[in-house]
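User: quick one, sequence for these tokens?
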């Protein structure tokens, strides 16, 4: 009877140890940590700082210091006819907004205003350069 009990405990332990062991998700690297870029809009131009970052998630923190409401569009450079990656709603004067874009491929991108004048806006667009992909956020503290 004792051998039978020990045998059943051993089989139960093996069965329980095999439950839920999938290594598929545990080894997938995390995406890079987001990088904050500040965007300043006034009546003559859009400026961004910094002007170059690696590929990955980017959070644009936008302040509109122009005299009228403006919206911001992020477009691939040279692709004025293409669809914007993201567009904000109208940002009132002296107000701020935030938008996040996940840049997956390196290249140049343009940040331009929509404003009330649309494509004929007199506000000069800014340009950013997206470089090679940033490292994963594995081994960084306080990351989800």
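Assistant:
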């Amino acid at each position: 009877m004792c051998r039978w009990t020990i045998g059943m405990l051993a089989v139960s332990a093996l069965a329980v140890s095999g439950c839920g062991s999938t290594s598929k998700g545990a080894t997938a690297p995390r995406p890079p940590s987001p990088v904050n870029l500040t965007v300043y809009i006034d009546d003559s131009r859009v400026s961004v700082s910094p002007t170059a970052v690696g590929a990955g998630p980017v959070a644009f923190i936008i302040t509109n210091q122009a005299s009228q409401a403006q919206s911001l569009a992020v477009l691939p450079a040279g692709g004025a006819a293409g669809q914007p990656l993201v567009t904000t709603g109208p940002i009132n004067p002296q107000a701020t907004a935030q938008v996040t874009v996940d840049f997956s491929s390196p290249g140049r991108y343009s940040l331009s205003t929509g404003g009330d004048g649309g494509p004929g806006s007199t506000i000069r667009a800014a340009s950013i350069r997206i470089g090679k992909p940033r490292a994963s956020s594995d081994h960084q503290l306080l990351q989800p």
